[in-house]
Amino acid sequence: MTRPRPRTHESESETRNPTGGGATAMRLIVPLQGVVQGRGGLILGSLIPCALFYFFQLYLKRHRSPKPGSNPTSPSQSSSNLSDLQRSSSRSNLSSRGSIGPVQVSSRASSIAKPNDSPYYIGLDRVSEDPYDRLDNPNGIIQLGLSENRLCFDLIEKWLSENTKDSVMGRDGGDLSISGIAPYQPSDGLMEFKVAMAGFMSQVMGRAVSFDPSQMVLTAGATPALEILCFCLADPGNAFLVPAPYYPGFDRDMRWRTGVELIPVHCRSTDNFIISITALDQAFNQTRKRGIKVRGILISNPSNPVGNLLPRETLHNLLDFAREKNIHIVSDEIFAGSMYGSEEFVSMAEILDMEDIDKNRIHIVYGLSKDLALPGFRVGVIYSFNESVLIAAKKLTRFSSISAPTQRLLISMVSDMRFIQEYIETNKKRIREMHDLFVEGLKQLGIKCAQSCAGLYCWADMSGLISSYSEKGELELWDKLLNIAKINVTPGSACHCIEPGWFRCCFTTLSQEDVVIVIERIRKVAETCKISS
Amino acid sequence: MRHLSTKATCNSHGQDSSYFLGWEEYEKNPYDEVQNPKGIIQMGLAENQLSFDLLESWLEKNPEPAGFKRDGKSIFRELALFQDYHGLPAFKKALVEFMAEIRGNRVSFDPNHMVLTAGATSANETLMFCLAEPGEAFLLPTPYYPGFDRDLKWRTEVEIVPIHCTSSNDFQITETALEAAYHEAQQRNLRVKGVLVTNPSNPLGTTLSRSELNLLISFITTKGIHLISDEIYSGTVFSSPGFVSVMEVLKDRNCDKTEVWDRVHIVYSLSKDLGLPGFRVGAIYSNDDVVVATATKMSSFGLVSSQTQYLLSALLSDKKFTKNYISENQKRLKKRQNMLVMGLERAGISCLKSNAGLFCWVNMRHLLRSDTFEAEMELWKKIVYDVRLNISPGSSCHCTEPGWFRVCFANMTEETLDLAIKRLKDFVVEHTANGHSKSNNSSKNSKRKFLLKWVLRLSSRDRDQEPDER
């Protein structure tokens, strides 16, 4: 949970505002409910706990306000000086100190500043320290932990060489002029870019649905898009249900600064990791029992890390569930254009088109980081049917706007329908080729992958290679793969997968030769695992 | 109903309706030299449009960066994939050197202490998240940029407590005012985490004096709090006394290795100095490793496009260009400011003596019907609707004295500025001729009705378009 933790060496949380105090009280009341509900009778059950609570509140109130006219060096202030003295020794131990950090920064900062201990991030760091290069560093770590698509840059470069000069600078009365891109623009994106993105999204999703630019808010990447939606839909302490396994980045994007909690809803390999409504219902009820309000469901479709699609029926069921519980659905469709199978992608928007129901609870997140392979350019989309959400989100884009020259460049590119069509088809073909090559290679090693038809990765079942069928066993294998085989893959536990042994392997950053090398390296480790088991 | 969050539904965050009403009116009836010569002239937008030609000529002579090329080779792939929140090293290096150059190279900056963000708006919010808990407070001298009420408070839940400055000493920060603000925060049960100043000041257009900076540093040292110095206008200082950065004063006081060194943070951006607000380039500079580490990670929510980073790294690395740009830009700003000041003087209106910024802090107190904010609003409405100039009223900047207005001069052509001055002059002449300073009852009543109507209209209107600028 990301509530700010009380500092341990000063008079704790009284310095918070009254709402904060109320929340502290709530945490007391809930456990006391048990007493009130039946075990203690009237006096013991209600009066005494209530009296205790009352006196506790009084105690908090008394100790919250500093004495009037306090001298700057009086005890209530010197505590910060104390921390100054402590700081010089604590700083070097910052990473190991956990929640006890220097007072100088907020507690939310302290927790964020700590190095991330998820294998997802550790792996990424290790690769940047020792990256594989066919010529310069053939023994380096090969990156399979980053869902990046490097297969179609040649197409974009060709487009650029034929189109750039005009598109970067805004054309102003025929002359290339910087006044088209330099001044302030609407923080939620240029209307022309929204129009272009609406057309692009529609094209990329097979023209099954059309998008209205006026229902769009553009952000600097899908990362802030998700965070902004979170700020709009939930208060600190509320929760979202997330089918697991899920993208490790959600834990950061949705929770860090928002104070919102993510509740994983476990999916099974027997269902090919498609969410079941029963599991969702269970998770909803359990969360409610804990006194936490569920605000919505966050789905990724196509799924990351599994790479499958949510079937129509599931989408309908999710909609029914959301309606019944009166919650939102956020559908992260960022891989919609990275399809390589024969199945048809169905967007939430398409389901809504068919049903004539209230659409205010549906919000779609999209971006150009995967489908157009432009993560560096920072282009994200919030697409919502809810006027109030759009208004609030628009205001919040002031903190995450897309750079104007980038918008100008991309307006031309994504509006070029002929080019986009060629790109989509070629991309599909190349991802499929890489996928087939990689999955076949794994198959030769006896490693099966989950059924998938989208995304830039496959979800591989390496449970046969782990010594103990547990998270520990899985992480041991991950470590072997990272340090011995020297490949970085993402272990299922980092994605909150409940079944040990699954690994996400991204293959679109590789060349065909690289795939051969990767398979070979895995084979060596696989053999040692089989010998030892 | 599926409820939205409290943050999404609570109205405004110090969003002063007058500030945005002026914008709306401008959008409905924007001045255009040819198409709409009687339209409203935008003087509420602090944008620097005076030196675009310098940028354009550089771009023309250096087509490679815009074309994703370096030394003839395409680096598109690298840029397209570059989303490292540590930022493009070449860009950070060029940016810190640019910042040092603006400060006459009297201080130097380390690129590893810089965090890039999508604009200074994002930088300020991120610093709040890093330095303060919900419910804690920062002290800000008034008048201040109206956008702070949103940027610093909204999602962070941090409070702003004003440090009241008055015209009696040209709105300088005094020790009494600092202590009073600190005390007020305590009365309101708010723990003060730091002070945030804009230097050069928006809306005053003045640089902080050395004594003010020393005062601030002593204050934060005693109280054990932070100091954020928003220096986004540092490159717009066009006359004496020059710009003194807080870093300089810290250095002079030999604070380098002391505690307070880590509690001073700078915010910067290229929106004002280079006139590129659309590019969304901002930066946090801090000597505190934890702040840098945290802010770096938080910048994921507002990274600068790699295309933009690369383009600007090439631009700012061209030292010949930056040297020429800085001095030429300042010259042009000085000329413009002088034009406005002289023009206003001829209309009998004085300004606060300023040496920086893209605006003047104009004194129209003598034109007020009474020394009240109501009268200021009346005057402001007249200026927007009758004189057809969109200027920013002091109340929107939390100024304690009615009658001050911020008037921008760098976002239009000289001819337009001339016209604006003329319109204002005519208005003043008419205004004093009709003895409006002491109006009679009937006009008071009609004014009241007028005000009432506007208040009602304001509360029912849904603001779509919001200005982002300062």
TrEMBL record, chain A:
<keyword id="KW-0812">Transmembrane</keyword>
<feature type="transmembrane region" description="Helical">
    <location>
        <begin position="41"/>
        <end position="60"/>
    </location>
</feature>
<dbReference type="InterPro" id="IPR004839">
    <property type="entry name" value="Aminotransferase_I/II_large"/>
</dbReference>
<protein>
    <recommendedName>
        <fullName>1-aminocyclopropane-1-carboxylate synthase</fullName>
        <ecNumber>4.4.1.14</ecNumber>
    </recommendedName>
</protein>
<feature type="region of interest" description="Disordered">
    <location>
        <begin position="64"/>
        <end position="112"/>
    </location>
</feature>
<keyword id="KW-0949">S-adenosyl-L-methionine</keyword>
<dbReference type="GO" id="GO:0030170">
    <property type="term" value="F:pyridoxal phosphate binding"/>
</dbReference>
<comment type="pathway">
    <text>Alkene biosynthesis; ethylene biosynthesis via S-adenosyl-L-methionine; ethylene from S-adenosyl-L-methionine: step 1/2.</text>
</comment>
<feature type="domain" description="Aminotransferase class I/classII large">
    <location>
        <begin position="142"/>
        <end position="522"/>
    </location>
</feature>
<keyword id="KW-1133">Transmembrane helix</keyword>
<keyword id="KW-0266">Ethylene biosynthesis</keyword>
<dbReference type="InterPro" id="IPR015422">
    <property type="entry name" value="PyrdxlP-dep_Trfase_small"/>
</dbReference>
<keyword id="KW-0472">Membrane</keyword>
<keyword id="KW-0663">Pyridoxal phosphate</keyword>
<dbReference type="InterPro" id="IPR015421">
    <property type="entry name" value="PyrdxlP-dep_Trfase_major"/>
</dbReference>
<dbReference type="InterPro" id="IPR015424">
    <property type="entry name" value="PyrdxlP-dep_Trfase"/>
</dbReference>
<comment type="subunit">
    <text>Homodimer.</text>
</comment>
<dbReference type="GO" id="GO:0009835">
    <property type="term" value="P:fruit ripening"/>
</dbReference>
<dbReference type="GO" id="GO:0016847">
    <property type="term" value="F:1-aminocyclopropane-1-carboxylate synthase activity"/>
</dbReference>
<dbReference type="InterPro" id="IPR050478">
    <property type="entry name" value="Ethylene_sulfur-biosynth"/>
</dbReference>
<comment type="similarity">
    <text>Belongs to the class-I pyridoxal-phosphate-dependent aminotransferase family.</text>
</comment>
<feature type="region of interest" description="Disordered">
    <location>
        <begin position="1"/>
        <end position="25"/>
    </location>
</feature>
Automatic annotation (TrEMBL), chain B:
<comment type="subunit">
    <text>Homodimer.</text>
</comment>
<dbReference type="Pfam" id="PF00155">
    <property type="entry name" value="Aminotran_1_2"/>
</dbReference>
<keyword id="KW-0663">Pyridoxal phosphate</keyword>
<dbReference type="InterPro" id="IPR015422">
    <property type="entry name" value="PyrdxlP-dep_Trfase_small"/>
</dbReference>
<protein>
    <recommendedName>
        <fullName>1-aminocyclopropane-1-carboxylate synthase</fullName>
        <ecNumber>4.4.1.14</ecNumber>
    </recommendedName>
</protein>
<dbReference type="GO" id="GO:0009835">
    <property type="term" value="P:fruit ripening"/>
</dbReference>
<keyword id="KW-0266">Ethylene biosynthesis</keyword>
<dbReference type="GO" id="GO:0030170">
    <property type="term" value="F:pyridoxal phosphate binding"/>
</dbReference>
<dbReference type="InterPro" id="IPR015421">
    <property type="entry name" value="PyrdxlP-dep_Trfase_major"/>
</dbReference>
<dbReference type="GO" id="GO:0016847">
    <property type="term" value="F:1-aminocyclopropane-1-carboxylate synthase activity"/>
</dbReference>
<keyword id="KW-0292">Fruit ripening</keyword>
<dbReference type="InterPro" id="IPR004839">
    <property type="entry name" value="Aminotransferase_I/II_large"/>
</dbReference>
<keyword id="KW-0456">Lyase</keyword>
<keyword id="KW-0949">S-adenosyl-L-methionine</keyword>
<dbReference type="GO" id="GO:0009693">
    <property type="term" value="P:ethylene biosynthetic process"/>
</dbReference>
<comment type="similarity">
    <text>Belongs to the class-I pyridoxal-phosphate-dependent aminotransferase family.</text>
</comment>
<feature type="domain" description="Aminotransferase class I/classII large">
    <location>
        <begin position="41"/>
        <end position="424"/>
    </location>
</feature>
<dbReference type="InterPro" id="IPR015424">
    <property type="entry name" value="PyrdxlP-dep_Trfase"/>
</dbReference>
<dbReference type="GO" id="GO:0008483">
    <property type="term" value="F:transaminase activity"/>
</dbReference>
<dbReference type="InterPro" id="IPR004838">
    <property type="entry name" value="NHTrfase_class1_PyrdxlP-BS"/>
</dbReference>
<dbReference type="InterPro" id="IPR050478">
    <property type="entry name" value="Ethylene_sulfur-biosynth"/>
</dbReference>
<comment type="pathway">
    <text>Alkene biosynthesis; ethylene biosynthesis via S-adenosyl-L-methionine; ethylene from S-adenosyl-L-methionine: step 1/2.</text>
</comment>
